[in-house]
Each structure stands twice: as structure tokens, then as C-alpha cells.
Design a protein that fits this description.
Elements: H1 3-6, E1 12-13, H2 16-21, E2 23-26, E3 32-36, E4 49-51, E5 53-64, E6 68-73, E7 76-81, H3 89-92, E8 98-107, E9 113-121, H4 126-142
Parallel strand pairs: 1-5, 7-9
Antiparallel strand pairs: 2-3, 3-4, 5-6, 5-8, 6-7, 8-9
GO molecular function, one term: DNA binding
GO biological process, one term: DNA repair
InterPro entries: NA-bd_OB-fold, RMI2
Amino acid sequence: MNLKEKRRSPPIKVLSSQLREGKEHIGPNGKMVCTMNRLGVEPGRSAPLEVSVAWMQGTVLDVNSENGALVLDETGTFSVLGVDSVPRGKTSLSPGRYVMVMGILKACNPEPVLRAVKIADLSENITHRKMWKFEVEDLQQTLG
């Protein structure tokens, strides 16, 4: 495998509803990709986004014994796998905490699933929660 094949795109900020409405397919590198519409843009007015690595934020609903968690953003839930393999991942995840999760997309629908690469507790600053949807929309409209 050469360097180009190993590279992943940077994480794209997304909402769980966008992934649920997206279409799964296998990308050229053999990894799962979700093709989805951009937030705040009428379908067909710009190119859809192809996401394989996602940045999502939400409130932890549950942490399970199988190394995973269920998180709720403002549009629905998504699952996070591999929390024990992320530094301070498990300690950031307790019900009611507002967290950021970056991870590799494992499924779009019926429920989005991420394999965690980074987890951070953002609960201390309410601005993170209030601005999230605007950040997602702004980034998606800016991406080429």
C-alpha cells in the first residue's frame, strides 16, 4: 500500500440526520464512504459531500460495556465504537456530557456509527453546543 492509499480525508463536520439520509458505498481505497447533501444547500445546487471520516458533537445518552456509547445530536442519535482505545475516551463519556467525537465512519444508516479516533469533553463551554449546527453548515458550504 502506498502513501496515497493510506491517506484519509480530514474529518468533516456532520449531523447524524445527514448521514442517515446519505448513501453508503465503498470508496476507491476500499473503505466505507457516505455520500450526503450539504447542510443549508438545496439538493442539486452543489456537489454532494463524500464523508469517510466525521467530526460529530452531541450529548452522551449511554455508555455500554462493549466499548461503545450512544450520543444524541440535535437531529438524532449516533453510535461510537472503540472508546477504550482513545486516550481519555472512556473518561470523557458519561451520560449528560456534551462531547466531540472524530472517527472513521463505519455505517451511515439506519444509524450512523463511528469508530472513535478522538473524543473530547466540551461540556464546560455552552457555546460549543449553541454554535455546532452553524459550524457544520458554514464548513459544508465552504468545502469545494
